[in-house]
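Appendix C: a fully annotated inverse folding record. The material below is reproduced so that readers can follow the format used throughout the book. The structure is listed first as C-alpha cells, followed by the designed sequence.
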C-alpha cells in the first residue's frame, strides 16, 4: 500500500518536473532566440540537473507539509547552496572541477533517495 502511494506520488511529481523543465526551455528559447534548440535544451538540462533535481528531492522529505511549488523553490535555493559549498570543498580535496557537474548531483540524488526510502519504511 505504501509503495503504491509513493509510486503514484512520484509519478505526479515527475509530470510536474517535466512541465517545469519544458517551461525552462521555453523561457531560455525566448531569452536566447538566436541560439539553436539543441544548445538551449542542453543548457536548460544542465541547470536543471545541477540546481533543481538535488534540492527538489531533498525537499521531498517534507512532501506532506509543503506543496510542489514551495518544495521546488526552496529546493532550487538549497541545491544552489549545497552544490556550491560542496564544489568548493571537493576542489580543496583535489577533485578536478570537470567532475563536479556529474559527481555532486549524483551523490546528492543518491542521498535523497536513501532519505525517501527510509522515511517510507518508517511510515
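Designed amino acids, in order:
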Amino acid at each position: 500500500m505504501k509503495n503504491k502511494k509513493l509510486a503514484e506520488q512520484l509519478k505526479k511529481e515527475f509530470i510536474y518536473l517535466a512541465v517545469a523543465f519544458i517551461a525552462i526551455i521555453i523561457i531560455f528559447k525566448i531569452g536566447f532566440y538566436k541560439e539553436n534548440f539543441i544548445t538551449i535544451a542542453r543548457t536548460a538540462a544542465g541547470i536543471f540537473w545541477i540546481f533543481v533535481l538535488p534540492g527538489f528531492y531533498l525537499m521531498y522529505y517534507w512532501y506532506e507539509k509543503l506543496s510542489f511549488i514551495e518544495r521546488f523553490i526552496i529546493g532550487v535555493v538549497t541545491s544552489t547552496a549545497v552544490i556550491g559549498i560542496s564544489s568548493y570543498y571537493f576542489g580543496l580535496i583535489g577533485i578536478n572541477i570537470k567532475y563536479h557537474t556529474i559527481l555532486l548531483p549524483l551523490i546528492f540524488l543518491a542521498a535523497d533517495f536513501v532519505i525517501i526510502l527510509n522515511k517510507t519504511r518508517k511510515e
